Fold this sequence. Notes:
Blueprint: E1 2-7, H1 16-27, E2 31-36, H2 44-49, E3 52-56, H3 60-68, H4 70-76, E4 81-85, H5 88-91, H6 93-98, E5 103-107, H7 109-121, E6 132-136, E7 159-162, E8 165-167, E9 169-172, E10 175-177, H8 187-191, E11 195-197, H9 200-212, E12 217-220, H10 229-242, E13 247-251, H11 254-259, H12 264-269, E14 272-280, H13 284-290, H14 296-309, E15 312-317, H15 326-338, H16 366-371, H17 389-407, H18 412-427, E16 444-445, H19 457-461
Parallel strand pairs: 1-2, 1-3, 3-4, 4-5, 5-6, 9-12, 12-13, 13-14, 14-15
Antiparallel strand pairs: 7-8, 7-16, 10-11
The structure holds iron/sulfur cluster (SF4).
Amino acid sequence: MNVLLISTYDLGHQPFGLASPAAWLTEAGATVVCNDLAVESLNETAVKDAQMIAIHLPMHTATRLGSQIVPRLRALNDSFKLCFYGLYAPLNAEYLESLGADAAFGGEYEQLLVDYFRHHVVPASEENAPFQSELSTGKQAFVVPRRTGLPALKEYAFLEKTEGETVTVGYTEASRGCKHLCRHCPVVPVYQGRFRIVADDIVLADIAQQIDAGAKHITFGDPDFFNGITHARRVIDAFHTKFPEITYDVTIKVEHLLKHADSLADLRRTGCLFVTTAVESVDDRILDFLDKGHTRAEFVKAVELAREAGLTLSPTFVPFNPWTTAEGYLDLLRVIAELDLIDQVSPVQLAIRLLLPKGSLLLDLADIQSAVVDFDAESLTYPWRNPDERVDQLQLAVQSIVETGDRDAESRHVIFGRLWEAACQACGIAPLQPAVKAHGWTPRMSEPWYCCAEPTSDQFSRL
Ligand code: SF4
């Protein structure tokens, strides 16, 4: 039986979300083809030959793109079983069913895909099984992801280690889910405060095969690398012992950077090049609404601790949300400048507008309910407006500045200067910039879209 696994977008990584289920389904007897539409064209032969096609939806962008491809698949083959899987599949089950999907699986989806394959694809009889939507956070015994057949690592986002020095990157996950309950986070409606670890030997074997394929740096895509600190420490120690020349990056929340401050030097010692940390806001009131588990002062402390340990922090933000004020946005820029973080913040992070997908816990808050309008089936989000029209206008101006700056390859300082001017204009004050220091190059990935965003017209046109 032929199974085609499709990814449309995975933040510039060779998709773990294809490689892992490919291994499970191969073990279950399927002949698996992987097709990553982010970097290659649709494999029409594989579509025509497939008895089951499963599309990976790890985030909003992929969900919008993944749903667009369905008519093209059906035009080539009208008899395959269609599944969607990943974080956003069960959250959008109703919509996916309306597209003709047979199943939507979320959380720990590998076993669910295998079960579906065994019970609904292998037997020839079950033509009209009812739509199945299932979410599992149960423990799985992971197997080593199967990366053969995927595009080469050099086709994906690379690390710009120093100015002009680029490095091939691999990607793996040492855990999935999260033990925290931040209200804006899409992990929460699915995992509800749980996380699952991938066994050390599987993680290391996956890293080893990517190093064999040319990776010189590994991104750990765990929602929070320090959710299981003992596991995390074991993984980095074993990783560094086995591959002392290879660097890596991780994502760790501010709360964990403080709680496990004694591990930061070990991150540096074992080759951690930078830590992405989801700060979201420097306004304590907004952080409280988001239930982020840290304050502005704790973020400042985390910056200090990381510097002491010689670690580069790459903060991420959701600067535009229904609580944002023009003055608050200017304050965020001021904090970034005062902490000498301009080189460490990707400009796109200063333009992010909060997305409210189905299942968002923020929808429980009265402030959000009064800001949103009806669910938009096309964008798969609840559109919202800021109570102050100036802020929505500022967001559009900021987005345009960031896009233009990125396209023209301007430095982060130049883009920051324009953002500062736009924010001052929105506040009706003179654009006197704070004194800033340029620290030179900080390591960064070439893929600037770190989080969920609306797909670009270029992404749609590639489908
Ligand atoms: S710590 Fe990160 S991954 Fe975990 S719930 Fe909060 S935002 Fe989501």
